[in-house]
Amino acid sequence: MCGICGLSFHSSEQFVHESLLRQMCSTIVHRGPDDEGVYACRNFGLGMRRLSIIDLSGGHQPQFNEDRTVSIVFNGEIYNYQMLRQELIKRGHKFQTDSDTESILHAYEEYGIDCLQHLNGMFGFAIYDQNEEKLFLARDRVGIKPLYYYLDDRVFAFGSELKAILQIPNIDKTVDLEAVNLFLTYEYIPSPFSIFKKIRKLPPGHFLIYQDNNIQVRKYWDIDCEPTSQSQKDYEEELRVTLRDAVKLRLISDVPLGAFLSGGIDSSTIVGLMAGIMDRPVKTFSIGFEDQSYNELNYARAVAKKYETEHTEFIIQPDAVDLVDKLVYHLDEPLGDFSIFPTYLVSKMAREYVTVILSGDGGDELFAGYETYVANKIARPLSLVPQFIRKGVLKPLVDLLPPQEQKKGVINKAKRFVEGATYPDDLQHVRWMIFLSALDRHQMFVPDVAHMVNGQSSYEFIRHYFRQSAGMDRLNQQNFVDFKTYLVDNILVKVDRMSMATSLEARVPFLDHRVAELSFRMPGELKLRGKETKYILKRAMRDILPEEILYRDKQGFSIPIKNWLRKELRPMLTDVLSPEHLKSQGIFSPTFVSQLVNEHLQGKENHSHRLWALMMFEMWFDKFAN
Question: What is the mean pLDDT of residues 206-210?
């Protein structure tokens, strides 16, 4: 696991200096505290920071082929590298190290760009082909590892994080207002957007060629699976076998490893499979809260007891939000997900014992684990009710109810359900993942900014993925949309940045591309049966998981931020979103934001999502955009 960066000036007369590469690397040292490597050749340069996981002594980067005409920097892990290595040796390639990095290098020599089809792993890498004067960048199929790039009339640059690119002198740091609008609507910034106009994310399953001062971005993988005609029993067996193999591959490591354990179906499945493979106890790590409506430690303890794991716990307190400045720095871009705090803290705790962690992320998106899928199913009859009644009658009635302090409850669910039902029907389940309406958007921004963002469709990228998956059944369409959007640009961003902030490598067996492809070959009715989510996963794992885990309600990995904003975090809220601060920036309406703040503090409404997103943007802006 590493952080990578690099640049190429368009002019062959403008040289890249190692000092600049080292400055870029210094911003991502948390991604790789064990080693640094840079390579500069005239107007081109590569840099990396390494977290040593495989071949601890011989995996230094950049790595080169035999005649030093091809070089690579690589972030991630290739889980099938040993099989790939043997295949390449048979074809005459000579290896100098035991690292997975060198397998990519020789695979590129053998197969060219098609080397990507031979890799099973998570990665962002850059290969420079000196003979062709070509730079080849690629990102893994699902988007587990990040990769940003920048192009203007002077320089091309890339990095695992934005911070590395921002070290290059005279980089254009204009904020992309369309990205700000999307962030406030969804709490994340979807690919290929970034918060800066000139910087873009390389989408998952894509590669980029930079040659002759131009770039080409192309797709090399996508979910394109026709449903197969199998019995439920056959699907269960195939899922067990494929997921077990995905876990087994991710146990390859020359350093200690463990697992996050929330007590939910996904993390419990991973721990159960690990316990059946490993010849020693699994090290598991959980985090809890004093507020029992948010606490899931009892479930985690039940799994830890069943598998006799070496279990470690931590209780998170409101003062954890004192970390916000540090976490904003590590996020790189604004992210409104509250669970950055428990994710960081459980990563920090785990890093004291292990260097690699397995996580259950991806199970919700592949096997319909979110309540939004159930909400959409329930709401289909409601679509017959005209929008003006939903918006003009139902919503005002429900808005009269004060929000509850607990995490979930009848009133909280009813308010959220009715709010989501007011959005366009063609957004399906995504209606319950939106936090900024068209009216709110018009009032949120100052008039000049509102004029610029109002003409842009906040929903187009969602509709694009619904159109792309039109041949799938309705539930698989919804899984596909989440797989392409929320998973990539919220969940995986959060896990990558928060684990890497502690120099911990996180691996996600559910996102082995073979598991993903299998998931989309299954009919949606096997994932959501009535109101039971993850039906097929529960059936496949029923022999290894306790019943109390199989049939518990989903809680979600969150914190009581709505309550903290009214109490412990009130000073931070009123300071960061003060009218004076907002006026000096000139993007948001101080009057409207003050209204949101007052309604939340008085307990009239739960505006925690909108307020926290605004706070995260303001703190990010002060750190990176000024």
Answer: 98
Query: Apex CA 470: angle with CA 467 and CA 475, to 5°?
Result: 110
Cβ–Cβ contacts within 10 Å for residue 624, how many? 20
Question: pLDDT, tens digit, for every residue of 595-620?
Answer: 999 999 998 888 999 999 999 999 99
Domains annotated for the chain, with CATH where assigned, are: 2-219 (3.60.20.10), 232-314+324-368+475-550 (3.40.50.620), 560-626 (no CATH)
Burial of 425-459, coded b for 16+ CB within 10 Å and e otherwise, reads eebbbbbbbbbbbeebbebbbbeebbeebeeeebb
Neighbours of 584 (CB within 10 A): 8
Other residues' Cβ atoms within 10 Å of the Cβ of residue 31 = 28
DSSP state of 471: T
Omega prior to 256 cis, within 30 of 0: no
Decide: residue 314, CB within 10 A, 0-12 exposed, 13-18 middle, 19+ buried: middle
Scanning 232-294, the segments in alpha helix (DSSP H) are 232-249, 265-277
Contact call for residues 429 and 478 (beta carbons, < 8 A): yes
Q: What is the pLDDT of residue 394?
A: 60
Q: What's the CA gap between 377 and 32, in Å, rounded?
A: 45
Instruction: State yes or no: is 2 an active-site residue.
Output: yes
